[in-house]
């Protein structure tokens, strides 16, 4: 399971979605029929995600356009955001006089059971990151505080974190992304590669899972 990053209450970043935002009615959008009854609403439509991702790509280009970049993508929940972000950075680079040499490396963090985060965190695919030495790192995904401590040991030139979603939660001092797509209430969302026990990754929109959906796919 992949989770959005958590942001302490009272801070801001990205496009702020208020606590009382009800989302959009499901019948306004297309979504897989096999999830009928499993969702409460469409929280962030796919088109809005794409527009915001392009803006983040422009911000990264402005800040890191003179660096040799390694994009460290956290699987599985971060892969859709990472792929779309990298595609837009490449497109901007092709049409700019500031070309960015860029590589992508994938790792996986596992810390979720059903809708609850566990204390047992595993980092897979990060056994040897020595190639990061002297490079600029753009990390995308979740649970960045633990990962950053590990990556810093390989002495990259600098590290920046991009996160599509940041949750507003009380009493949390977690590492916050440098580039934020959306700041959202503390609700459990799925879709756009975010899952609930490996389901809902095939949704293109970000949606709120229903109580019946949680029960249906609970393990």
From TrEMBL:
The keyword RNA-binding does not apply. GO terms for molecular function: hypoxanthine phosphoribosyltransferase activity; magnesium ion binding; nucleotide binding. It comes from Gasterosteus aculeatus aculeatus. Residues 50-196 form the Phosphoribosyltransferase domain. Coiled coil: none annotated. The lineage of its organism: Eukaryota, Metazoa, Chordata, Craniata, Vertebrata. This is Phosphoribosyltransferase domain-containing protein 1. Keywords: Magnesium, Metal-binding, Nucleotide-binding. One of its GO terms (biological process) is GMP salvage. SUPFAM superfamilies: PRTase-like. GO terms for cellular component: cytosol. It comes from the Eukaryota. CDD domains: PRTases_typeI (cd06223).
């Amino acid at each position: 399971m992949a989770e959005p990053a958590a942001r302490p209450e009272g801070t801001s970043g990205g496009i702020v979605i208020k606590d009382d935002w009800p989302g959009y009615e499901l019948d306004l959008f297309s979504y897989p029929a096999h999830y009928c009854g499993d969702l409460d609403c469409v929280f962030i439509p796919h088109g809005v995600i794409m527009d915001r991702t392009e803006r983040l790509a422009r911000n990264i280009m402005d800040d890191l356009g003179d660096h040799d970049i390694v994009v460290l993508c956290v699987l599985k929940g971060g892969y859709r955001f990472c792929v779309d972000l990298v595609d837009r950075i490449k497109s901007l680079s092709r049409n700019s006089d500031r070309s960015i040499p860029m590589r992508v490396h994938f790792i996986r963090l596992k810390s979720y059971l059903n809708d609850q985060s566990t204390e047992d965190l595993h980092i897979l695919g990060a056994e040897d990151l020595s190639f990061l030495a002297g490079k600029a790192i753009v990390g995308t995904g979740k649970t960045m505080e633990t990962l950053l401590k590990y990556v810093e040991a390989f002495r990259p030139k600098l590290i920046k974190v991009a996160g599509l979603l940041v949750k507003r939660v009380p009493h949390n001092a977690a590492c916050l992304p440098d580039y934020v797509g959306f700041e959202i209430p503390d609700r459990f969302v799925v879709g756009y590669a975010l899952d609930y026990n490996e389901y809902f990754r095939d949704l293109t929109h970000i949606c709120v899972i229903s109580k019946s959906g949680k029960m249906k796919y609970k393990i």
